[in-house]
Amino acid sequence: MTLASTANTTSRLPLPGLLALATAAFTAVMTELLPAGLLPQMSRALDVSAARVGFLVTLYAVASFLAAIPLTAALRGLPRRPVLLGALAGLALCDAVIALSSSYPLTAAARLVAGVMGGTLWAMLVGYAARMVPAERRGSAIAIVLAGITVALCLGIPAGSALAGLLGWRAAVAVLAVLAVVLVAWVRWKVPGFPGEPAAERVPLRRIAALPGVSTVLSITLLLLLGHQAMYTYLAPFADSAGFGRTSLVLLVFGCATVAGIWLVGVLVDRHLRRTLLAALALLAAAMPALGLWAGSPAVLLGAVAVWGVAYGQAPTLLQTALVDASGPANADVATSMQTTVFNAGIAAGSLTGGLVLDGAGATALPWTTLPPAVAALAIVAAARRHAFPLRRPAL
């Protein structure tokens, strides 16, 4: 398919192309996180400790963190679809190397390169979806693409771990390589091509960061991830401290609730972005005191986790849609690369903060650690009525 000149003149969603991008998001999440579920098998095969296998997940995240902004800026002038195809082909090659490797250094190097490919991919997906549809359907398109993350977390990782149990971890990783190859063909067939930015028209990174609303959306992203990750990373010890030992059930409830949140935001984001985000942050903030005060009741624990999951499931789509609105679709790749970096910084800061609180004050203090950033995010969104989260969304 060539450049789609009619992409912004129809209100119909180009589902085959958007589903291809959603599957790309799924593949990136699976590539990043699946080794965490394969620690014992990979440890034996590579003759290293489980901790060193866990470090493979860290390598991927660090590479994505470091590569997202500079690589996206360097590739801005190139046609978009070849860059997307290159990132997917890179993931396929890295997964194939990992599936065949018996050397830890080679596996680690492949994970680093995969992280670079993943960082490039994440910086492109939301902006690509935004350019494929008219402005009034932008939020719905982004929700479809980001649903790939939820499917990976709720279904993909458990399925990959089960496949590894049946056929071995190499088979599970090889499936990801094959999926990425299939995606190359799917994207080439159903995702339209868009030109890169001519050098004379490229807005410098510092000017994109300074656009009204961009820094506000990025600050909300940081606050949300810091608070969420401080609690979510240590959900297992929190559930144990509440006397509810079935952590898998708690995680299942959270995962299913995020699916409900994704569905809900797909219905609401294009018409009620501001109000939906305010409601999601308010629900997140309300769930934390419930967990802090009454988690000893299984019904309250699971109910509060479900509310938290519904709220969090909506947030990525709402924030990325707001960021595209603030930056404009032409600058979306660079703005999204900034958000990718902030997102990973929030994950790291939240995990570190939660760990310090867990060691110092204990698991029962975790909800009260999440509450302040959630309330701060809610207050900032409420105040940002002009640019980041305006009362009326701009028609770009």
Describe this structure in words.
With 396 residues, the chain is an all-alpha fold. The chain folds into 2 domains: 15-192, MFS general substrate transporter like domains (Growth Hormone, Chain: A); 205-383, MFS general substrate transporter like domains (Growth Hormone, Chain: A, Up-down Bundle), CATH 1.20.1250.20. Helices cover 78% and strands 0% of the residues. The chain has helices at residues 15-33, 39-46, 50-74, 80-100, 104-131, 138-167, 169-190, 205-209, 214-232, 235-241, 247-294, 298-327, 332-360, 366-383. The chain is globular, with a radius of gyration of 20 Å. The two termini are 25 Å apart. Residues 1-10 have low confidence and may be disordered.
Using DSSP, what is the number of strands? 0
Query: Architecture of the largest domain, CATH level 2?
Result: Up-down Bundle
How large, in whole angstroms, is the Cα Rg? Answer: 20 Å
SS-based class: mainly alpha
How would you describe the shape? globular
Terminal CA distance: 25 Å
Summed over residues and divided by their number, the pLDDT gives a mean of 87
Largest sheet: none
- And the CATH topology of the largest domain? Growth Hormone, Chain: A
Number of domains: 2
Count of discrete alpha- or pi-helical segments spanning 4 or more residues: 14
The name of the CATH superfamily of the largest domain reads: MFS general substrate transporter like domains
Series of secondary-structure elements, N-terminal to C-terminal: HHHHHHHHHHHHHH
Low-confidence segments, ≥5 residues, pLDDT <50?
A: 1-10
Helix content: over 70%
Q: Provide the CATH top-level class of the largest domain.
A: Mainly Alpha
* Proportion of beta-strand residues: under 5%
